[in-house]
Design brief:
heterodimer; A: mainly alpha; MetI-like fold; 2 domains; 12 helices; about 0% strand; B: alpha/beta; Rossmann fold; 6-stranded mixed beta sheet; 22 helices; 21 strands; about 20% strand
Chain lengths: ~325, ~600
C-alpha cells in the first residue's frame, strides 16, 4: 500500500472514532454499545445532529430578510429599476405576472416597486421611534433610579399616567398637536413607547445599584456620581441595542397603523401602511395591492423580533 | 429505641467495616463487593463500572468513570469529593435523572435486584420515590413556592398510590417523623415561611413518602447552620438505624464522618479511595485523600500551611515586603496610635413587615488593633454581615460610633469619609457578584486606583498585588466569569489590597469554595496579614476556619456579642451557653 493511501485510511478511522466518542445519545438510558449497521446509521445521524445543533434556524430566516430590508431602505434603486410614482392608468390593477411581480395598483404603479421604496419610510420611522423611545426611557428611568427619592416618585407617577394610555392612542393624541408627517410620527411613537422603556431601565438601574460591585465601589471611596458614570450608566447602555431591536417590530406596526389612518407620510408616498389604506377599497378586485405590503410588513416585524430575542438571550447568557 | 434492634445494627456495622478493608486495598476494582452480601439481604444498589458522559455540540465530558458502588440495607455510604468530582452526577444517575445530553453505561446496574439498564422514563418513575428517595441541597428552590409543605408531601404520597382519605394523617405522621414541631399547623405553611432547617426536614419527609429503601442525600446540610446541620444529620442517622440505606453526598469529610459507615473519595469522576470511615480518616492511602484531610482547618492547624504548596511559594511576597516597609514606618511613627478599627455601642435595627423591627445588631463593641486578626462567628441571621457593613461605613448605625484610625465615619464630612474608606477594604463571599461583569481582571483590580495614581503607577500596583495574591499576570485581560472560584477570590483579595488598606474585612470569603481551594485562600490571607501587617476582620460561620486563622474571636447570637476573647480561650473553654452549643454541634473528623 502506498504511503498516502495509508494515511487516508487512518484519518478515516480517526474520524469515525471521534464521532463515536462524541455521540450525543438522545436518551439517558443505560444501553450497551450498539453494533453493526445501526452504528453507522447512528454515526451519520449524530454527525448531522452535531452540525445542525448550533444553528439558529430562526436566525437563518430572519437575517436575510433584514439584510434585504436594510438594502431596500438604503438603496432601493439596487433592487428595482422602476419608479414608485410612475403612474400608468392603462395598466391599472394588473394581477401579478412576469411584468409586475406583485401586480399594479389603481394608478398602474408597480406594487413591488412601491413596497421596496416604502421600506425606507416604514423602517426608518420604526427605527427612529424605537431609538427615541429607548433614549427618552433611559433619561427618565435613570433619573428616577439615581436621583433623589422625590424625583423618583414624581417620575414614576408621571410614567404611570402616560402608561395608562395605549401607546398608539397617545401617539394619535400627540399628532393632533404636532400635525402629521414622518418626523412628528417618530416623535409621537417615541413618546408613546417611553413608559415601558423607562420602567425597564429604572428597574435595571436599581439592580445595578444594589449589586455587589456598586457596594464594593463605595468602599473604594468613590462618590455616588462616579459610581453612576462608571457602573450604572454603562450597564444600562449595554442592553439598549437589544431593546431597540425588540421595540423595532412594534414601532413599525405603530407607524404603519398611523399611516393607515392618514396620520403619517401623505400620498403619493409609498409608506406600507399607506399602501394598505389605498388598496383597502379594492381588496375584492385586486387582492395583491394589500396582500404583498402586508406580507412585507409581517415578515419584517417577525424578523426584527426574532433578532431582538436572540440578542437578548445571548446578552442574558453572557454571565455564564 | 429498642435496645436489641440497636445491638443488631451495631453488629451489622462492624460487618461492613470488615468487608470494606480488603475492598479498599483494591481501590475501586469492586470485585470484593458482591462476596459479603450474605446475611444482610440483597443490596439496594449494585453498580459495576458505571460511566456517565455528557455531550453538547461544543463539548464532550466524561463525568464519571469506572465507578463501583454497592449499598446494603441499613448501611450509610458517603460519596465525598470537591466540585466537579462527579459525585452529584453519580447520585443523579442512580435515579435516572442525568438528562437528555447524557449517556450512562454500566456492566451491572441493579436497584433492589432489578436491572435498570435501558430503562425508559416510565420505568424510572417506578423506582424514584419508591425504591430511592432523593433529598437535594437547596430546599428553598426544591419546594414549590405556591404550595404548602403539606400539599408537597401529599403529592409525593399520591405518586406512590396513596388514596386521598388518610393522606392528611399520613402527611402529619411523616412531618412528625422528621421532627417537625406542630405538624398539623405547620403542614399548611409555605416554604418561604419556614426556616432552612425545617425546609430541609420537609424535603426529607417528601423523600420518605414512598417509603424508599435508600435515601440519596446530595449535600443535605450544606446551606444550613451548624446546630441545624447536626439535627438533620441525626435525623438521617436515625433513618439509617431504622433500616433505610443512606447514600450521603458531600464535599465535607467532617459532615460525612459522623454518619457514614463507608466513604468513597471521588476526584475527576473516579473513585480514588474507598474504605471504612475510620480507615479513611486515620490511615488514608491516596495522596488526594491525605491532601483533603490536611486542608481541613481547625485548632490543630493554627500557624501551619493548609495547602500543599504547589502555588504559594513565598517568593512574590518578598515584593510586598517593600510595601510593608512603607506602611510599617508610617505605623511605627504613630506607635501609640488608636486601633485601626473601633466600634463602640453600635446598634442597628431594620423594619420588617410593617410594624415589627428586627434588631440586627445590638450594642456591639469591637476593637481591631493594628495587624490584628479578629474573627466574628455566628449562625445565619446573627447580624454578622450587618456588623461588617457598619464597620465598612456602608450602613450608618442607629446608635453608637465606629472609628477608623481614631476618626469617626460620621465626623469628617463627605470628602473626609471618602478618604477614610480607603483604609478599610472589603472581600465579600460572592466575589463574582462584586465584579462589574464588563470588566477584565486588570480593570477590576485597578478600579479603586483610578483618579489616585497615573496609568503607569496603576499598572505597576496591579501587577504587584496580583503577584501577592499568587495570580499569574496572564490573567490580566481575562473576564472574571471565566475564572475559577479560587481565582475569583484571589482577584477580590488583590483588589482589596490595591489601596493598601489598614484593615481588610472579609465576609465569609471561603464559604463558597472547595476545601483545597479554601485552604489556599486561608494560607494567602494569613500570609498577607503577616507580610503586610494588614489587620483582618474575618467573618465566618465555620468555627474550624476561624480557629485556624484568627487571634481574637467574637461570638454573635441574635445581634449581640455573647462572648469574646482570644480564640483558644473562647473555643477551648467557652463560658457562654450558646458558644457551648455551637461548638458541640460542629462536625469534627471523628478520628484524627
Amino acid at each position: 500500500m502506498s504511503a498516502p493511501a495509508e494515511t487516508s485510511v487512518t484519518d478515516q478511522s480517526d474520524v469515525v472514532l471521534a464521532v463515536a466518542a462524541s455521540s450525543p445519545s438522545a436518551d439517558a438510558a443505560v444501553a450497551p454499545a450498539a453494533l453493526g449497521s445501526s452504528r453507522r446509521y447512528r454515526n451519520v445521524r449524530d454527525t448531522v445532529l452535531k452540525w445542525s445543533a448550533g444553528v439558529h434556524w430562526d436566525l437563518v430566516f430572519a437575517l436575510p430578510i433584514l439584510a434585504i430590508v436594510a438594502l431596500a431602505a438604503i438603496a432601493p434603486g439596487a433592487l428595482t429599476s422602476g419608479d414608485p410614482l410612475d403612474a400608468n392608468p392603462r395598466e391599472s390593477h394588473l394581477p401579478p405576472g412576469p411584468e409586475h411581480l406583485a401586480g399594479t395598483d389603481l394608478l398602474g404603479r408597480d406594487v413591488l416597486t412601491r413596497i421596496i421604496y416604502g421600506t425606507r419610510y416604514s423602517v426608518l420611522i420604526g427605527l427612529g421611534a424605537s431609538t427615541l423611545g429607548v433614549l427618552l426611557g433611559l433619561l427618565v428611568g435613570l433619573g428616577a433610579a439615581v436621583g433623589p427619592r422625590w424625583l423618583d416618585r414624581v417620575i414614576s407617577r408621571f410614567v404611570d399616567v402616560v402608561a395608562a394610555f395605549p401607546g398608539l392612542l397617545l401617539a394619535m393624541f400627540l399628532i393632533t398637536f404636532t400635525g402629521r408627517g414622518a418626523g412628528n410620527l417618530v416623535l409621537a411613537l417615541g413618546v408613546g413607547a417611553l413608559p415601558q422603556y423607562a420602567r425597564l431601565i429604572r428597574a435595571n438601574a436599581f439592580v445595578t445599584l444594589g449589586s455587589g460591585y456598586v457596594e464594593q465601589a463605595k468602599t473604594f471611596g468613590l462618590t455616588s456620581r462616579r459610581i453612576v458614570w462608571r457602573h450604572v450608566l454603562p450597564n444600562a447602555l449595554g442592553a439598549l441595542p437589544i431593546m431597540i431591536t425588540i421595540g423595532l417590530g412594534g414601532a413599525i406596526i405603530g407607524s404603519s397603523a398611523l399611516s393607515f389612518l392618514g396620520l403619517g407620510p401623505q400620498p403619493p408616498a409609498a409608506e406600507w401602511g399607506l399602501l394598505l389604506a389605498e388598496s383597502r377599497t379594492y381588496l375584492r378586485q385586486a387582492w395583491w395591492g394589500a396582500v404583498f405590503p402586508g406580507v412585507a410588513l409581517t415578515s419584517v416585524v417577525v424578523a426584527a423580533t426574532v433578532l431582538g430575542q436572540n440578542l437578548q438571550r445571548r446578552y442574558e447568557r453572557r454571565d455564564r | 429505641m429498642n435496645p436489641t434492634l440497636v445491638a443488631g445494627r451495631e453488629a451489622d456495622r462492624q460487618d461492613v467495616t470488615e468487608l470494606s478493608r480488603p475492598q479498599a486495598l483494591e481501590a475501586g476494582s469492586g470485585d470484593g463487593t458482591d462476596s459479603g452480601s450474605g446475611g444482610r439481604g440483597e443490596p439496594v444498589i449494585q453498580v459495576r463500572n458505571l460511566a456517565v458522559e455528557f455531550t453538547t455540540p461544543t463539548r464532550h465530558v466524561q463525568a464519571v468513570r469506572g465507578l463501583d458502588l454497592t449499598v446494603y440495607p441499613g448501611e450509610a455510604v458517603a460519596l465525598v469529593g470537591e466540585s466537579g468530582s462527579g459525585k452529584s452526577v453519580t447520585s443523579l444517575s442512580l435515579l435516572g435523572l442525568t438528562g437528555p445530553t447524557s449517556r450512562v453505561t454500566a456492566d451491572e446496574f441493579r436497584i433492589v435486584g432489578r436491572d435498570v439498564r435501558g430503562l425508559r422514563d416510565r420505568g424510572w418513575r417506578q423506582i424514584r420515590g419508591r425504591e430511592l428517595g432523593l433529598v437535594l441541597q437547596d430546599a428553598l428552590t426544591s419546594l414549590d413556592p405556591l404550595r404548602t409543605v403539606g400539599q408537597e408531601i401529599k403529592e409525593a404520597l399520591r405518586a406512590h398510590g396513596a388514596n386521598k382519605s388518610g393522606a392528611d394523617a399520613k402527611v402529619e405522621a411523616l412531618l412528625a417523623e422528621v421532627g417537625f414541631p406542630d405538624p398539623a399547623v405547620r403542614s399548611h405553611q409555605y416554604a418561604h415561611q419556614l426556616s432552612g432547617g425545617l425546609r430541609q426536614r420537609a424535603l426529607i419527609a417528601s423523600a420518605l413518602a414512598g417509603d424508599p429503601k435508600l435515601i440519596v442525600a446530595d449535600e443535605p446540610t450544606t446551606a444550613l447552620d451548624v446546630t441545624v446541620q447536626a439535627q438533620i444529620l441525626d435525623l438521617l442517622a436515625a433513618r439509617r438505624d431504622a433500616g433505610t440505606a443512606l447514600l450521603l453526598i458531600s464535599h465535607d469529610l467532617a459532615v460525612v464522618s459522623r454518619t457514614a459507615d463507608r466513604v468513597l473519595v471521588m476526584r475527576d469522576g473516579v473513585v480514588v479511595e474507598q474504605g471504612s470511615t475510620a480507615q479513611i480518616l486515620t490511615a488514608p492511602r491516596h495522596e488526594y485523600t491525605k491532601a483533603l484531610l490536611r486542608a481541613v482547618p481547625s485548632a490543630a492547624t493554627r500557624g501551619q500551611r493548609l495547602s500543599s504548596g504547589d502555588s504559594g511559594e513565598p517568593e512574590p511576597a518578598l515584593r510586598l515586603a517593600q510595601v510593608v516597609q512603607e506602611v510599617g514606618t508610617a505605623a511605627s511613627a504613630e506607635e501609640a496610635a488608636p486601633p485601626v478599627l473601633r466600634a463602640a455601642g453600635v446598634s442597628k435595627s431594620f423594619e420588617v413587615s410593617g410594624r415589627r423591627r428586627l434588631r440586627a445588631v445590638v450594642d456591639v463593641d469591637v476593637t481591631v488593633g493594628r495587624g490584628q486578626k479578629v474573627g466574628i462567628v455566628g449562625e445565619s441571621g446573627s447580624g454578622k454581615s450587618t456588623l461588617a457593613r457598619i464597620l465598612l461605613g456602608l450602613i450608618a448605625p442607629d446608635s453608637g460610633r465606629v472609628e477608623v484610625n481614631g476618626q469617626s465615619w460620621r465626623s469628617d464630612g463627605k470628602a473626609g469619609r471618602l478618604r477614610l474608606r480607603r483604609a478599610v477594604q472589603f472581600v465579600s463571599q460572592d466575589s463574582l457578584g462584586s465584579f462589574d461583569p464588563r470588566y477584565t481582571v486588570e480593570e477590576i483590580v485597578a478600579e479603586p486606583l483610578r483618579g489616585l495614581l497615573t496609568r503607569a503607577e496603576r499598572q505597576e500596583r496591579v501587577r504587584e498585588v496580583l503577584a501577592a495574591a499568587h495570580l499569574e499576570a496572564d490573567l490580566l485581560k481575562v473576564v472574571p466569569r471565566s475564572l475559577s472560584g479560587g481565582q475569583r477570590q484571589r482577584v477580590s483579595i488583590a483588589r482589596a489590597l490595591a489601596l493598601r488598606p489598614d484593615v481588610l474585612i472579609c465576609d465569609e470569603p471561603v464559604s463558597a469554595l472547595d476545601v483545597s481551594i479554601q485552604a489556599q485562600i486561608l494560607d494567602l490571607l494569613s500570609e498577607l496579614s503577616q507580610v503586610t501587617g494588614t489587620a483582618l476582620v474575618f467573618i465566618s460561620h465555620d468555627l474550624g476556619v476561624v480557629h485556624h486563622l484568627v487571634d481574637d474571636v467574637l461570638v454573635m447570637h441574635r445581634g449581640q456579642i455573647v462572648e469574646q476573647g482570644p480564640v483558644d480561650q473562647v473555643f477551648n473553654a467557652p463560658a457562654d451557653p450558646y458558644t457551648q452549643t455551637l461548638l458541640r454541634a460542629v462536625p469534627r473528623l471523628a478520628v484524627r
